[in-house]
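Structure, all two chains, one model.
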Amino acid sequence: MGYSLFIIVAPFVLFLVLGLLGMKMKPSVAGIIGTLGMALCTVLAYTVAFQYFSQAGKIGETWTEVIPFNFEWLRFTENLHIDLGILLDPISVMMLVVITTVSLMVHIYSLGYMKGETGFQRYYALLSLFSFSMLGLVVATNIFQMYIFWELVGVSSYSLIGFYYTKPSAVSASKKAFIVTRFADLGFLIGILILSYYTKTFDFGLLTAHHAQLVTTSFAGGTFLGLSIATWALALIFMGGAGKSAMFPLHIWLPDAMEGPTPVSALIHAATMVVAGVFLVARLFPVYFFAAPEVLEMIAYIGAFTALFAAIIAITQTDIKRVLAFSTISQIAYMMVALGVSEYGGHDGLGYMASMFHLFTHAFFKALLFLGAGSVIHAVHSNEMDKMGNLWKYMPITHITFAIACLAIAGIPPFSGFFSKDEILAAAFHHHPVVFWTLWVVAGLTAFYMFRLFYRIFWNGEKKYDEHHKPHESPLTMAVPLIILAVFSVFSGLIPFADFISSDFAPFHTHINWLVAGLSVGVAVVGIGVATVLYGKSSDKPAELARQMGGFYKAALHKFYLDEVWMWFTQTVIFRYICEPIKWFDRHIIDGSMNGLAWITHKTSGSVKGLQSGQVQFYAWVFIFGSLLIAALVLFL
Amino acid sequence: MDFNNFLLMGQEIGLIAVFLILFAYDIIASDKLKRWFYPVACFLFAVQTAWGFFPLPAGEAFGGLYVASGLTVLMKNILNIATLLVFLQSYTWLNSEGTRHKAGEFFTIALVTLLGMYLMVSAGNFMMLYIGMETASLPLACLAAFNKYKEKSAEAGVKYILISAFSSGILLFGLSFIYGAIGSLYFSDITLSVVSEPLTILGFVFFFGGLGFKLSLVPFHLWTADVYEGAPTSVTAYLSVVSKGAAAFALLFALYKAFGQIEVVWEPVLWWLSVITITLGNLFAIRQTDIKRFFAFSSISQAGYILLGVIAGNAQGMTATVYYVLVYVFSNLAAFGVISAVENASGGKTSIAAFNGLYKTNPLLSFVMMLAVFSLGGIPPFAGFFSKFFIFMAAASEGHYLLVFIALLNTVISLYYYLLIIKAMFIKEGEPDATGRFSSDVYNKTSLALCTLGIFVVGILACIYENIGNISFGI
């Protein structure tokens, strides 16, 4: 399966070609080259998936890791070396499929959506760079390779959020995204260093083998501030994941990241990059489970809290992309919870499977939601709900596909979201009642805010549009990806996921827990019902309700002032008490010593210049005298 | 006589064959045929370079006078690559009015010096080393004076031959002491019975002075700036890279193989000389206004860094030194390729001011120059960073922390003057009479492309360093 290397290399080549030569191409040519390249990758990814799941990945009944390509890059010791390789196992193959599919859809969609934008070629070059980085991340054979691609993903996300770099809000959003995730990655890096210091390896295979025996034995006994070193290392690694996957309190960058072009939001900030944190935890799951179960516990609680928190905020937002952003945070938190409550092996590993399952289905319906939102924005030239309403008349395809995605995310059977969400709830049900009921409430809230969004965009009253600027259905390049993703959103839940993905690579059987399913569908129906009552037609009821909620509504509308808290924290604590002393040190000690060095250098340089007289007899004299001096020094000192 | 001895000398034989073909070609061919001389010469030498990458037998010939091992082959390959790059850069110059009729001489003389350097690297006996050095030095004086009607070039030739003769005398003087003390000039004999006594110390120091001349270590360096400035640019490039590289390799073998037992003697000598060489080279480089003089002093300080690897005295130091020279070849020759291009286009200007505003007129060339000086300055992720890193690691592995610290301080200074070139190219406005957009010949472009590739790839591909390490192991 050596050709799987090509899936990674092709986007990089595309990036180079489009980045270096793009300006010389016609925009449409660059777009088509990028799209065709991605289509090729998608075909290859599906071939790999087919081959892996049909024969290459199977040993008897269980799945196995296949490494079709490995290049040893830096070797420190026998086991400690940085490789660049490709690791195929069920989750990485699944990710290949998800990433290439969504990326291809976004490539096609952008042909229409970004048409006529300046920097069209740059846009496609950056999309290729992102695809390369993300694909490299999921197939990483070792944690260091993952870290390299992790940062590349961050860079490409940064440049895509700031794509409209003349817009100040886009620039500050891109900076915010980069700084917050980099801050989290600092934890990731320290975690990697601690982990590899003790285990003497970066390799995922060695780390997770035999119930993560290597980690549990090599960390034995060490504690720091009352927690074991292994806990520290894995918590720090999780910090990196929390940054990328926008877990509370590091989620603040994701809503702002919506400043980027909408297809980018669909690809990066909904379907792929933001689930990197979930993927990271899943990749190291045996290590977490056996070496630091308390970290998993923490992940479950952080996830549950984030899910609830983001869902509440999502209810109050009026910018349609922001609603989707908070919904994304909430849904990713769902996946995190699933990992947090999971156990290892067989049916106990239901949470692990459910998490990956939800990642899979969510990628499609959330990408669909974003692309649908993009289609709407394209039509009405605004992100604000107030400017919308009654759009079903004008945009039938967007309307239907958006409705499908809303039903999927709300968890209504038989749409895909129902199955994956149900598995997560079932996993939580068995382990943590508190977490379960939180998620249950979130499921209701999700259904409510999604249908609030849906009604306010497509139904809700007799919105009058300007005769000259009547909204219209999007062009075919945009409509086709919507339809394809809608098909995925409907049917992807029917895949028997447990046959393919499990915590210990052994397929197991799942069955629907009717109690949980009934509860979750019930609460979703209630959510949709309430939304219908409040927003189905235009009325004063929502405003009235908001007034009654008073302070709580206002707090939620302002995202619980978390941006302000962070701002205060950075400006007063970090800037004043950390940056100021460092600045002083830099200005005086570092610069001072450099200036001193420069001064000394300059002075001595001036005083020795006579040595170079140009007279060869003097040269010879220095030659012989120098030799004698050296001889004397060696002999007599 | 056992003719099997010659089988070990595959690279030398190949070189001599190339030399003879070119020599005959130069003499016999008609003017019409001679138009093909340059490409043929480059092609033949490229074949000779490629030939070195085939597995060659290892062993000792002529009773230990001549040694061939994986490491010597590798070193000769590095010298070959460097020479090939220099050849590629010389096209426009060799085709100019004053030199066109003697292009053949340039190649044949350069090949002879290269043969001398091969022998220096492969020497197992000090007499062999000496013969190699002489073969390498004397013709180089001809090359330095190649533009003999130019005053500076003639001056460079004279200065080079005088100092070279002088240093040979000193080296022989030192060797006679060593012979007197030990009774043999074979490395293998010397290492068995050498002890730290005044006679051997004197012998060693004088020998070291002779090699120090080729490496242009302080205080044997004073000829460097004048010769580098006066000699034709391609010859300067050759002197600064190939000649210096060969001397560094020869020094490695002499110190490790012959004087390995008296490390106590040469360690402090190298310690002090590397400090003085790096520092003084830097101090002088800052004040230069001529780019060739500038690179003369830059190459002096680079030689000081090379000593850092030599001083480690172990396999790691050996690896780091060879790797350092390899990287230095690409970085320095990239710089010289750009200098050649600018010099040719501007009618012989070699002042730093000639580079003012180069970015506006020739962005690609200034980009290559930037890569070159960044690599020379040791800025990641270019190869120069890794080579400095490894050489510091090697020195630190033997506990020379203070030395590494001083060298680090000096890299800061070197960054300053390397950045002066960047400043000239990117920030300063071009002079009114500056040459506009120009395009250099395809050969020079090839060499610059190869150098750029080297600057990127040699650093990133760790397997190159590891391979050198595997070969160096056991020396």
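Chain B touches chain A at residues 158-159, 162-163, 166-167, 170, 198, 201-202, 205-206, 208-209, 213, 218-220, 222-223, 225-226, 265, 268-269, 272-273, 280, 282-284, 286-287, 409, 412-413, 416, 462-463, 466 (CB under 8 Å).
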